[in-house]
Amino acid sequence: MSHVPDLTAVILGLILAAWLAAGAWAVWSGLAMKNKAETTLRQSGRLGRLLETSPALPLLVRSDGKLEASQRLMHWLGFGYLPAHISELHTPKAGMSREDLEGLTGDVNLAQKSGSNFTRAIKVAGSDKALLIRGGLADQKIAPNGSALLWVFDATDSEGQIEKLRDENEAARAAFDALSALIEAAPVPMWHRSSDLRLTLVNSAYVKAVDAEDGAQVIADGIELIETIDGVSPINAAAQAKEKGEPLERVVATTVGGKRRMTQVVDVPLGKSGIAGYAIDIQQLEDARREQRRFIESQREMLDKISAGVVQFDADKSLKFCNLPFQRIFSMRQQWIAERPEFPRVLDRMREMNRIPEVRDFPEWREERTDWFHSNESIEENWLLADGTHLRVIANPTPDGGLLLIFEDRTEQVQLASARDTLLRVRTATFDNLFESLAVFAADGKLNIWNHQFAKNWSLTDDELGKHPRVDALMQKMARQLKQAARISEVRDKVRTATTDRIQQAGTLSFADGRRFEYAAIPLPDGNALFTMLDISDSHRIEQALLERNEALVEADSIKASFLSNMSYEFRTPLTSIGGFAELLDNGIAGPLTEQGHEYTRAILQSVKRLGTQIDNVLDLSQSEAGALPIAKEKVNLNKLVGDIAAQFSDVLQAQKMEIVLQLDDKLGSAMADKKRLGQAIWQIVDNAVRYTGEGGRISVNGSGDVKQAVLHISDNGPGMNAGQQSRAFDSFARSRDQKAGQKKGGLGLPLARQLVIAHGGSLTLTSELGQGTLVSIHLPRQ
């Protein structure tokens, strides 16, 4: 009984021990499973991370069309969420196109049914992203029941490169085709040699040049285009080009199409690809060069004959040619020119000869002119030399890099232009300051030139005239100024006649405002017509007034002449009676007279004589002015006539202490004249001098002459006359002279003397100055 508790304890201990061992094993197993699970999670995380960062993302499409994919793939497709079904991979703004989705759906269905693999490229809508999808049937462990596993690759860069390569390939192929076509169509022979210098390709021009059937025959027979010249064959030339590694050019004569032609042959090494060659027919170029040389020679001969200096420089700035005028203008010797000096040296030589303008900095000036070689256009300058010569300089760069200079001596043209400009300014100033209205119409009827007076008289503006209107349009505007507008047609017709028929015409115009103009249309030497207008309004009014006054004066003069004639005859009858009775009384018929009575009678007789003379003078003057004075011509000794007249004044001269000096030359001679009338004229002049000279005066009479006429000068040292008195000296009814002590009436002396001299065909002039005396000159014809 005592062993029963011990057994129970043992069993209980075993149970506890077993339970403890089981717990320990469970703890250890749990820890092992935990470690394995953590390891598995870490591996899953790494795998997921690798999957997320891989260039290809999986897309699982189950048999019912449902999708399983990562968010990154959805971002590739442009979705912000995972579509539930494959049919939802197309939307207007994301996913793929409808065509791509239909194709992908077909590929997926075929893979699910047959297990075949497929590859498809798609475009993502709304972006330039390109995706490459490779798919097939999914493993049963991954997705049972016929799911499809798709691997999606981002092929955007690859597609771009592929597209670029495809475009480049197409471009290269197109370029190759175009180059091949160009070579074939080239008008010059072209060929290609392999590295062993055998012909491998020729074009149609080559075949035609060697008269072969086709290119195959040329290559098979090795027909060469170029002959062997001077031991150099075409193959040798190609070998030299290959050896030097640079193109080899040569000009040879060859036979092309049965004709001998000059040809430029070029062999071009192409490295490992062989050697290419082509031949250019330069026969026309050689002919052109020969023709150019002949042209240059003839041109230089012609340039030597012109007046302008011409010099040409090469691209290296050396003198190539200069004509004789250039050598003459710049004083350059032929020996120095033959050295072909450079352009700067030529400028230096010009400076030495003082044949360039005065410049402050000559080196800079020379450098600027040297830059003419690099100019893109012609340059023109004017040089004023120290001796006054004007040179027009034209610098023209030549296509070969040289320079052509032309020196034109424009000294005479400049002087003429200056004179012309001066004349034009003078003409313009003259036109604008003329009182007349002037306008010049061209041969086609256009207004060419006008002055300010023309515009003012016709009330035309500068804008209207500045358009140079034709005569028809201008006359329409001018017509509104006329009193009768229709008369403008006369002006237009006369201007046309002056330009077309070259006939000068004139007329008068009356303006609406009362002005009156004389106008003329005058043909000019250059084919134009001058239209001129002169305002005669004032002169017309004066003319009318003068005509009216002249009619009145003629009538008054007629009355005056009639009155004087009648009065003269009326005076003569009683005067004759007075003189007769005075003579009877003086002779004592009525009884003896005392001495004082005799003095009275003698005074009466003297007055009667003088009054009779005055009446005769009045009658003579009236007849002379009327042109009815009788002149009886005979040969008159002028020296004796003048001496006799001077003697008649001896008593008067002695009484007034005056003297008369006669200086009569033998050349005075004689003349055919009326002795009485001519003596009367000279007597009147001397008498006039005696009366107005005064006491103590001096009178001089000078006589001379020539074959055609006799000349008398009668002068005195009296008080003289002013301009007003001189203008009235020959007016028989005006005051002749003014004296300080009073005024003396002008008589008939000078007017009568002048009429008598004129009646003899001569002339009488008067010259006087206050305080210097008076000079009367008579010019009398011999016949």
Outline the structure in words:
By secondary structure, the protein is α+β, with helices and mostly antiparallel strands. The chain folds into six domains: 1-51; 54-154, 2-Layer Sandwich (Beta-Lactamase); 186-281, PAS domain (Beta-Lactamase); 304-415, PAS domain (Beta-Lactamase); 434-541, Beta-Lactamase, CATH 3.30.450; 596-781, Histidine kinase-like ATPase, C-terminal domain (Heat Shock Protein 90). It contains 24 helices and 29 strands. The strands form seven sheets. The chain has a five-stranded antiparallel beta sheet with strand order 2-1-5-4-3, sandwiched between helices. The radius of gyration is 68 Å and the shape is elongated.
Quaternary assembly: single chain
- What percentage of amino acids are in beta strands? 15-25%
Tell me the total number of β-strands. Answer: 29
* Domain module count: 6
The whole-number mean of residue pLDDT values reads 80
Radius of gyration: 68 Å
Briefly note the structural class of the backbone: alpha+beta
Distance between the termini: 225 Å
Q: Which stretches are poorly predicted, pLDDT < 50 over at least 5 residues?
A: 735-746
| Largest β sheet strand count, sense and barrel closure | 5 strands, antiparallel
| CATH-derived architecture of the largest domain | 2-Layer Sandwich
Instruction: Write the CATH fold name of the largest domain.
Output: Heat Shock Protein 90
CATH superfamily of the largest domain: Histidine kinase-like ATPase, C-terminal domain
Helix content: 40-55%
Question: How many helices?
Answer: 24
Shape: elongated
The top-level CATH class of the largest domain is: Alpha Beta
- Strand ordering within the main sheet: 2-1-5-4-3
